[in-house]
Amino acid sequence: MAPTVIITGASSGVGLYATQALVSRGWHVVMACRDLGKANRAVQELRIDATHVTPLHIDLGVQTSVRAFVDAFHASALPLDALVCNAAVYLPRLKEPARSPEGYEISVATNHFGHFLLCRLLLDTLRSSERPAPRLITLGTVTANSAEFGGKVPIPAPADLGDLRGLAAGFLAPVAMIDGKPFKPGKAYKDSKLCNMMMSREFHRRYHQDTGVIFSTLYPGCVADTALFRDTPALFRTIFPWFQKNITKGYVTQALSGERVAQVVADAGFETSGVHWSWGNRQREGRAAFAQPLSAKASDDATSATLWTLSERMVGL
Predict the structure, then answer these.
(1) Is 189 a catalytic residue?
(2) Which of 52, 190, 230, 243 is deepest in the core (most CB within 10 A)?
(3) Catalytic residue among 17, 90, 189, 251
(4) Tell me, what's the pLDDT at 32?
């Protein structure tokens, strides 16, 4: 039987091209998406062999949907050899926080809580994989890693969870930020991605030795023209890719980003757990992946442990 991977947000962008790359490697991909019609159209447009994909509905911002997805996956009787947490929402123009059905700010609810719940519910299934060293891979971002220049950009503010007082207070209205401070939509996205990177390390710390599962994150480069940016101003969507291609030299195509995700999922050389893989912020042809150090914030074990406990409370575990 072909190895099976679940990829969230697989109907476009990095997730779609990772699907294409992994199918070409002989994997079966469960495309975990909100819009199954979009996923099926994308498979046809890229001429991906439809017999090697299974689209299943999930809305990561709705915890009942995450649980229903897990039930549907188990009912499919497919094995699970890798899980890729790729999907994200970025809503930088919100004036007031949008909220999930549970009442949580939507960026954190989708990008962090949804993936945290999904990973917890599927961990036992993943650890039962017959392949050596099954992998749980999470897409990180340079904007959440203040050890790098991109993570220090003060617009709207660098990622910073503070003392987690917003979560400790229950994270319901009027609270909309993990640090309990006034709402900044762009920072909410950065904070949610910092949570993703911290939780990957915490999964590694808690479970790698006993399960053999490889937990890692990656930054494939700046994929500046994906649907992640659909809610940004039109001028930004024009200027940002040009800026990344010509000024920062950080731009990578969606196809290359998908290939890099596929490498971390399937290839030899990526079996080290607890690593954040990167190809650098300035792209160089032929450059190999390397382990990128994370910031003190992302590497703080005490804060990560508290974030884990509070996140369990938020998702009912």
Answers:
(1) yes
(2) 190
(3) 189
(4) 98
